[in-house]
Write a structure and sequence with these properties.
single chain, about 240 residues, alpha/beta, FAD/NAD(P)-binding domain, 2 domains, six-stranded mixed β-sheet, two-stranded antiparallel sheet, 8 strands, binds flavin-adenine dinucleotide
């Protein structure tokens, strides 16, 4: 039996996506204007905050962030340092980079402190239609379960991370094992056995670089020299 999620017909602000950007926006809005509580809705098919972030960090087995401890969703830049006072071993050099678990626990704490636990509506937004009006323009949001919501403002916090597959991939005529040619966003290192295997990484952006480092470390001792060796191999 399918349940329909009860939604308001109209909302002031619709936030699409429940990743770190949406969480940061929400806490900053609440800090500036408490009265906005109850006037916004957050949509994400996962129904949870930070689901994609968690999945990405787990899939690539990333031990700590690359951004320092002041970059986080709480409006107080020192909130993460305060939270980490009892866990100093989880801030990594050179700039106190928060450990993955520390950061996730901190974000859960932010969600709790700002009372945002039950705020994510577990539905994807399928389309947005502007509703022109000379005084009160609005947007109609069509949701994955067929419901519609009218919003005064909409924030797209769905991230720009679109998977880009080069044309030449689709032009490959010869049959090949599909799991041997993967996009970095679909790779889950926890399920792969790469020990001793040769991997060709196409692209030198962050995902690919992180993937390369993690592959390399899966068969090396963890050291700064190893990281330097991998970065030198970017052609
Ligand atoms: C390997 C790697 C390491 C990284 N390290 C760091 C780091 O150390 N520090 C840092 O700051 N950043 C880091 N990043 C970048 C970080 O992951 C992204 O910048 C961040 O996740 C973007 O946040 P976001 O909220 O915009 O999007 P996301 O986290 O991608 O969240 C977007 C959400 O939108 C939802 N969504 C999508 N479409 C719809 C729809 N139609 N309707 C409703 N919901 C929808 C998705 O389900 C998702 O939950 C790293 C990225 C990678 C790949």
């Amino acid at each position: 039996m399918q349940f329909t999620i009860a939604l308001p017909e109209t909302i002031d602000l619709a936030i699409i996506g429940a990743g770190p950007h949406a969480l940061t926006l929400t806490t900053h809005l609440l800090q500036k204007r408490q009265s906005i509580r109850g006037k916004f809705s957050i949509f994400d098919p996962s129904g949870r905050w930070m689901s994609r972030w968690k999945q990405q960090f787990a899939a690539l087995e990333i031990p700590h962030l690359r951004s320092p401890a002041v970059h986080h969703p709480d409006p107080n830049p020192f909130a993460l340092r305060k939270f980490a006072e009892s866990r100093p071993n989880e801030l990594f050099p050179p700039y106190d980079l928060p450990g993955t678990q520390l950061f996730e626990d901190f974000c859960q704490d932010v969600i709790r402190v700002w009372q945002l636990q039950e705020q994510v509506i577990p539905l994807a937004v399928k389309s947005i239609e502007p509703l022109p009006h000379h005084l009160r323009p609005r947007f109609r949001l069509c949701l994955q379960d067929g419901q519609e919501v009218i919003a005064r403002r909409v924030v797209l916090a769905t991230s720009s991370a679109q998977i880009q597959i080069p044309d030449w991939v689709n032009q490959i005529q010869t049959a090949y094992p599909q799991d041997r040619l993967s996009h970095s966003q679909t790779i889950d290192l926890r399920k792969l056995q790469l020990m001793g295997k040769k991997v060709l990484i196409v692209g030198g952006r962050l995902d690919e670089w992180t993937f390369g480092i993690r592959c390399y470390f899966s068969r090396c001792d963890d050291s700064a020299d190893d990281a330097a060796a991998v970065s030198r191999k970017v052609i």
